[in-house]
Amino acid sequence: MKQNINQEKTLGLHRWRKKLKLCTIFFPLIIVVFCPDRLGAVGYRLPNQDPEAIARGDAFAATADNPSAIYYNPAGITQLEGQQISAGIYAVSAGQTYTSPSGVTTKANSDLQPVPQFYYTCTLTNMPLSFGLGIYVPYGLSLDWGDHAQFNTLGENGKVLYLCFNPVVAWRVNDTLSIAIGPTINYSQANLNQAIGLIPGDQFSMSGDGTAFGFNAGILWQPDPMWSFGVNYRSATTVDYSGTSQASPYFPQVPSNTSIKYPQFVVGGISFRPNTNWNFEFDLDWTEWSSVQEIVFRGTSFGNIPLVLDYSSSFIYEFGVTRQLGNGYFASVGYVYSENSSPSQTFSPLIPDADLQLGSIGIGHHGQRWDWAIAYHFAYNGGRTINNNYNPQANGTYKTFNNAFNVSTTFKF
To answer: Of 322, 323, 324, 336, nearest to 404 (Cα)?
Structure first.
């Protein structure tokens, strides 16, 4: 009898150890599935929505003179005549490398990931109103460390889609001032596959989707041909995700859900144009990541699980220069410094947040009916060392060097 009781206690302890290990794995994985906001310092937030802006280091809020103004500063569409349709593709690689404390190096998959962009604008004849529709991806992409990463119980891969439909209306108040506002209708889905690490071939998988509603607004003021000022504001949104999770072969698939807040951000820009050939602009981009502190996941095999992120608000500093070359051709260069928002204690390999430096370059042409532009940028961090993480498996050095390209064409009629 006593032996049977001891065996039952041992078996029960073993089961609880399995559940405890699964819980500790569950925490960092959910960040990628339900909080796709950071990959490097710019991260799963994608501020790169047009090649003309990217080439200028995304310093575009005070210029905003093509249809992508719907994203960068919707007040800028009052500068456009007639109807314009713009379509583009942004392709970016992850470019992440991890070196463990013992010196073993692992690289994430760096295949280019395509991100679509579409904008339509219409300025009414003899009226001070302009209308627009943007369809773009302000958050998303994926990170894949593969199934042999040393921290595979913390993260293998995650994929996120965050699609935004953004109609806007802009009013040209007078010859120097324009204002605009529009709702954002957002749809997001995500999925994840992850090793558990108790036996070969076990796996944790999760998928979910949800919607959120918000708005963006902008002001563009050009008191003098040499100076222009722009402000863009995007409201915070909350996505209510519903989906399923499964820890195979230990537990059956169960419904899971959570609510995630995506923070508000504000971008302010100053453009200086000493003559018609040059445009210098500086933008300051602030995101209220400090509003994202804790997430509670409901309905899992382990009950409700709180996850502490403890993010802090951060700035992105953007500077760009455009030179008109004649006959409609132009060239641009830009520089960006993006601050880290994640503390070392809660750092996750699936969200390798770090201070980033970005450089960019691009060319394009403005014609009577057709415009085109192409841009390239890279992001670099020489290495962020984590040595005091709550989960020691995350400790090590994370380096970033990614590449991105954007090309677009615009038809005017």
So the answer is: 336
Q: What is the 3-state secondary structure (H, E, C) of 178-209?
A: EEEEEEEEEEEEEEEEEECCCCCCCEEEEEEE
Q: Could you report the per-residue pLDDT of 6-43, keeping only the tens digit for each?
A: 444 344 434 434 443 444 444 444 444 443 334 444 44
Whole-angstrom distance, CA of residue 97 vs CA of residue 73: 35
End-to-end distance of the chain based on CA atoms, in angstroms? 88
Average pLDDT of the residues of the chain: 87
Query: How many CB atoms are located within 10 Å of the residue 215 CB?
Result: 14
Distance CA 262, CA 266 (A): 13
d(CA 141, CA 159): 6
CB 180 within 8 A of CB 196: no
Non-local (6+) Cβ contacts of 7 within 8 A are none
CB 402 within 8 A of CB 379: yes
The 3-state secondary structure of the chain, one letter per residue: CHHHHHHHHHHHHHHHHHHHHHHHHHHHHHHHHHCCCCCCCCCCECCCCCHHHHHCCCCCCCCCCCCCHHHHCHHHHHHCCCEEEEEEEEEECCCEEEECCCCCEEECCCCCEEEEEEEEEEECCCCCEEEEEEEEEEEEEEEECCCCCCCCCCCCEEEEEEEEEEEEEEEECCCCEEEEEEEEEEEEEEEEEEECCCCCCCEEEEEEEEEEEEEEEEEEEEEECCEEEEEEEECCEEEEEEEEEEEECCCCCEEEEEEEEECCEEEEEEEECCCCCEEEEEEEEEECHHHCCEEEEEEECCEEEEEECCCCCEEEEEEEEEEEEECCEEEEEEEEEECCCCCHHHCECCECCCCEEEEEEEEEEECCCEEEEEEEEEEEEEEEEECCCCCHHHCEEEEEEEEEEEEEEEEEC
pLDDT tens across 146-201, in order? 888 888 877 788 887 889 999 999 999 999 999 999 999 999 988 887 788 888 88
